[in-house]
Amino acid sequence: xxxxxxxxxxxxxxxxxxxxxxxxxxxxxxxxxxxxxxxxxxxxxxxxxxxxxxxxxxxxxxxxxxxxxxxxxxxxxxxxxxxxxxxxxxxxxxxxxxxxxxxxxxxxxxxxxxxxxxxxxxxxxxxxxxx
Length: 131
Prior knowledge:
By secondary structure, the protein is mostly helical. Helices cover 80% and strands 0% of the residues. It starts with a helix and ends with a helix.
């Protein structure tokens, strides 16, 4: 299997593929899904619903293009499938946060930093009231 791959890599067909837009277009396009994957760790407050919908739609359309073009561009298809999946997950996070009570639930849960800030404010108020 490995010897067949290395034989193909040395062939003119491989050079033709690696120096074509069927290879470099999808490679350059991988920035979108990589950024989307990195954004999965960000706060839901900063998700743009309109942009996420646009990016998911764009990737769904170009998934079809990558499948229908001859020869099929599997690298482009994989890139857009990854991006569409990630954008749809982001869209779900957006809808959950803004429309399904996620914001209210998070606001009700106070973290240790928020509790420390409130305790400091209470102590500061007690000190200022005694003066």
